[in-house]
Specification:
Blueprint (H helix, E strand, L loop, with lengths): L4 E4 L3 H13 L3 E7 L6 H5 L2 E6 L10 H10 L4 E3 L9 H10 L2 E2 L4 H8 L1 H10 L7 E2 L11 H9 L3 E5 L9 E3 L5 H16 L4 E5 L5 E10 L4 E8 L3 E2 L2 E2 L1 E4 L6 H17 L3 E10 L4 E7 L6 H8 L3 H9 L16 E8 L1 E2 L5 E2 L2 E2 L2 E3 L6 E5 L6 E2 L6 E9 L2 H13 L2 E3 L5 H8 L13 H5 L10 H20 L4 H12 L2
Helix pairs in contact: 4-5, 5-6, 12-13, 15-16
Length: 495
């Protein structure tokens, strides 16, 4: 019997996004939430909800026992992990399988093999996927053996220490001086343990300067794998992505083709099931395997816009044995899509998290613009969770067209009560660093560390305030439209 009641084991924008598609498919949805999220948007969007603990993620969203108990109580027969939190946890997949529910993701064994970065690299080597040199540091009792340090000396600096599990820049340290190696390993291990419950790390030769390219794939669990193009995620800060786009611009056709086939070989080697992303670094000549994410990616909307698919729906079809992958790659693609993450952080203060109440939260309604949001006006932004509030996705006939639409959409967005990364991302989009192939993964740290928000003159602030009040009235009366108000404002303030 096809399952009909799906627990979404995530929160915020991730949960909202997944619930939207599952509801459109006619499925009942169950939200799990912490005490802090009782009145959150994703809780209201679901058909049912269960509280699973206090605000701290370790006692709620990371507590597998409480998630499973909530699913039993709400009569769940399937679970979608979203992204982040436990979405790459083999243990969650295993527990769901034990319950007899459908897990909308890879098998527990696949999550273990590919979610563990050292195992994934071994699989990649076996599939002839290019990898940067790497090694696992010895245990403290064996660390006196000098052979591993001699190997690192042979590679030369910079080196990168990475957590074996997890992602998002947690448990990562760049080593530019081998005299600080042990200190950096210990620091990375402490952060990895706190973030993922696993202190394991490994060391690899850092490839830089390089572009960050990733390949989206869907596997049917039987050995067939469809490739849904690629994305560029090079503009990032401290391994946190800021702007993503599809397809990757100015990528040589040979490199694109070989990347796609390398990703396919890796996924086929384990008969991968569901949506996954294989990430690479490209130094202009050679590409190198970075990792595989066994889940839906934050940046999946740009692929959806270009390929005309709903990846959450594809995940459901794979999980329930309804998918036919043969026609996916043959679907025509259209144009270019670019996404910015809207994070509650202050770029002018070293990206410190910004907490508070969203006194204003108004999104544009414009052609070619998609808003994936987990918040609404009046919400309290908590320090307990990831700072991402939403994503603005622009789709256009070309990269230039999509860029113009995205800049206009940023100008037409009103968020007040917390600082966000939008002004910073707008400046990036309008800079020479956004020219095709111009940036590398450390461009933001090297060139944008002293960025300051533009200071508007008082008369412009008054114009914005008047327009905001007009917008609020317009949104209530629906005449004129919200988009029209903001388009006029954008023309006045940012000519």
């Amino acid at each position: 019997m096809t399952p009909s009641r799906v627990l979404v084991a995530n929160r915020g924008e991730s949960a909202c996004r997944v619930i939207r598609t599952l509801s459109a498919l006619g499925l009942e949805t169950i939200a799990v939430h912490s005490e802090a999220d009782r009145n959150a948007r994703f809780v209201e969007a679901a058909d049912h909800s269960r509280e699973i603990g206090p605000a701290t993620a370790a006692h709620s969203y990371l507590n597998i026992d409480r998630i499973i108990e909530a699913g039993r109580d709400a009569a769940a027969d399937a679970l979608h992990p979203g992204w982040g939190f436990l979405s790459e946890s083999p243990e969650l997949a295993r527990r769901v399988e034990q319950e007899g529910w459908i897990y909308i993701g890879p098998t527990a064994q696949q999550a273990l093999q590919l979610g563990d970065k050292t195992q994934a690299r071994e699989l990649a080597h076996a599939c002839s996927v290019p990898c940067a040199p790497s090694l696992v540091p010895p245990a403290p009792e064996s660390a006196e053996d000098p052979s591993w340090k001699r190997e690192l000396e042979r590679w030369g600096v910079p080196l990168l220490i990475k957590a074996t599990r997890g992602g998002g820049g947690k448990g990562m340290r760049i080593v530019g001086d081998l005299d600080r190696l042990e200190e950096s390993i210990e620091s990375a291990q402490r952060e990895a343990l706190a973030a993922f419950g696993d202190a394991s790390v490994f060391i690899e030769k850092l490839i830089e300067p390089a572009r960050h390219i990733e390949v989206q794939l869907i596997g049917d669990g039987l050995g067939d794998v469809a490739i849904l193009g690629d994305r560029e995620c090079t503009l990032q800060r401290r391994h946190q992505k800021l702007i993503e786009e599809s397809p990757a611009p100015s990528l040589p056709s040979r490199v694109r083709r070989e990347m796609h086939e390398a990703a396919r070989r890796l996924a086929q080697s384990v008969q991968y099931r569901g949506a996954g992303t294989v990430e690479f670094l490209f130094d202009g000549e050679q590409f190198y395997f970075l990792e595989m994410n066994t889940r839906l990616q934050v940046e999946h909307p740009v692929t959806e816009q270009v390929h005309g698919v709903d990846i959450v729906e594809l995940q459901w079809q794979v999980a329930t044995g309804q998918v036919q992958l043969a026609d996916l790659e043959a679907k025509p693609t259209h144009g270019h899509a670019i996404e910015v993450r809207v994070n509650a952080e202050d770029p002018a203060a070293d990206f410190l998290p910004s907490v508070g109440t969203l006194n204003r939260c108004l999104w544009p309604q414009m052609d070619g613009i998609r808003i994936d949001s987990g918040v609404r006006q009046g919400d309290r932004i908590s320090p307990h969770y990831d700072p991402m509030l939403a994503k603005i996705i622009a789709h256009g006939d070309s990269r230039e067209h999509a860029t113009r639409r995205l800049v206009a959409a940023i100008d037409a967005t009103l968020i007040a009560g917390v600082e966000t990364t939008l002004p910073f991302c707008r400046d990036l989009l309008c800079s020479t660093d956004f020219h095709p192939g111009a940036a590398h993964t450390t461009t933001v740290e090297q060139k944008w560390s002293d960025w300051q928000a533009p200071q508007l003159e008082s008369h412009w602030r008054q114009a914005i305030d008047r327009a905001a009040r007009q917008l609020l009235r317009a949104s209530a009366s629906n005449s004129p439209t919200v988009a029209g108000c903001w388009q006029r404002l954008a023309g006045k303030v940012w000519p």
